[in-house]
Amino acid sequence: MSTANSSESPRRVRVLLVEDSPTERYLLKCLIGAAADLEVVGTAGDGREALALLSRLKPDVVCTDYHMPVMDGLEFILEAMRIHPCAILVLSVAVQSFQRDNIFKLLAVGALDVIAKPIGERCGIGAEQANVLIERIRAIARAPMMRQRLAAASVAPVAAPRPARVPQLVVIGASTGGPQVLYDLLAGLPKGFPVPLVCVQHISPGFIDGMLKWLECRSVLRPELASSGELPQPGRVYFAPDGSHLVLDERGRFRLQRCTRNDIHCPGVDQLMLSVADHHGDAAVGVLLSGMGRDGALGLQAMRQRGARTIVQDAVSSVVFGMPAAAIELAAAEYVLPGNQIGGMLMRLIDPNLR
Predict the structure, then answer these.
(1) Residue 209 and residue 184 in contact, taking contact as beta carbons nearer than 8 Å
(2) Averaged pLDDT for residues 255-259
(3) From CA 329, how far away is CA 315, in angstroms rounded?
(4) Is the pLDDT assigned to residue 164 strictly greater than 60?
């Protein structure tokens, strides 16, 4: 009896590397190819050359530089999303924490992640960044496969009790893939949106201010960092700051809590949603967007058990379906919707007369 199938190696992640420096291209190819589960299936020196390879090579992940001759990374991503959508990671000296405009331009056109190369080093990246690069490639490679695997399974919304009160607050949790959805969601909400929105977005330290400026460019609502003791106001969008959990107290005011070593995420979505469940009960709406892990699932479950309305992003439109899937497993989701339909649902839940 043949045992060939049982001895086959797992399929490796196929990576297309786009880098204009021949030396760095060679070093990165060696670095990525050294991982047993990754395979560099092709290289290109600029975006135009990479576009010609996409359809033939069908990579799982494209790792690209930003500044390149002929066609730069931004233009390449725009064209790639049009002709052959794929998971794209940007590795560049042009995405340092202070280059926020570059970072959010890339995310807006379809990049899933960015990693900054060290400034001043002539070639290559350090060992720590090499490990980060390998892990990020693995993570975003899993995301599209997860979407395809789960898209076929229809998730029927579970009936939930109607709230006794009109919602007075919307809370949103997001991680990987979340900024793109927030960008479109906030752009679709009207200036007269009658309740506050409070958000926790997992993002690298130092990037939240840049993200708020990016969101503000498209939204008529005002995104800002929440301050301890502040009472959230209608028509404004509040975000948890770096380094602290954001919760609401019994008076409905913001309170910042110090994170501990045991916290996986800081700020955390669960902490915010659990506090809303405790102090707002059925007068709130909870939303969980694309992201890795399970943060927010328990909080959304608690909100739903108190009569709040709850929404999660669906598998097909999520970059990573981890957080929404975890909430669905706990029967925490009343509605499972594509990212581009969540804003419309919020308006119907808050006020059917909103346009």
Answers:
(1) no
(2) 93
(3) 13
(4) no
Q: Which domain holds residue 17?
A: 12-151
Name the domain boundary from 151, 179, 207: 151
Question: Do residues 80 and 180 share a domain?
Answer: no
Q: Please give the structure tokens belonging to residue 5.
A: 């199938």
Q: Is the pLDDT of residue 148 over 50?
A: no
Q: Name, in order, each residue with C-beta under 8 angstroms of 26's C-beta and a sequence gap of 6 or more.
A: none
- Same structural domain, 254 and 314: yes
Domain count, the chain: 2
pLDDT of residue 260: 86
Measured between alpha carbons, how far is residue 206 from residues 98, 203, 326 in Å? 8, 8, 28
Mean pLDDT, range 188-214, rounded to an integer: 91
CATH of the domain at 291: 3.40.50.180
| Cα 182 to Cα 197: distance, rounded to the nearest angstrom | 11
Provide the token pair at 321.
């379906």
What is the rounded distance in angstroms from the CA atom of residue 103 to the CA atom of residue 107? 6
Same domain, 341 and 273: yes
| CATH number of the domain that residue 89 is part of | 3.40.50.2300
**Residue with the two structure tokens 């229809």:** 154
Which residues are marked as active site? 175, 202, 295
Contact 240, 219 (CB under 8 A): no
Token couple for 188: 């679709």
Residues 44/75, Cβ–Cβ less than 8 Å: no
Range list of H helices, the chain:
4-7, 22-33, 47-57, 73-83, 100-109, 127-151, 178-187, 208-216, 269-280, 297-305, 322-329, 342-350
Per-residue pLDDT, 255 = 97
Tokens of 277: 């469940």
State whether 129 and 187 are in the same domain: no
Report the pLDDT value the prediction gives residue 161, as an integer from 0 to 100: 44
CB 145 within 8 A of CB 177: no
Q: Measured between alpha carbons, how far is 10 from 158 in angstroms, rounded to an integer?
A: 37
The neighbouring-strand residues paired with 221 are none
For 225-249, the pLDDT digits (tens) are 999 999 999 999 999 999 999 999 9
User: Phi/psi of residue 257, each to 5°?
Assistant: -110, 140
In a domain, 6, yes or no: no
CA-CA distance, 59 to 141, in Å (whole number)? Answer: 9
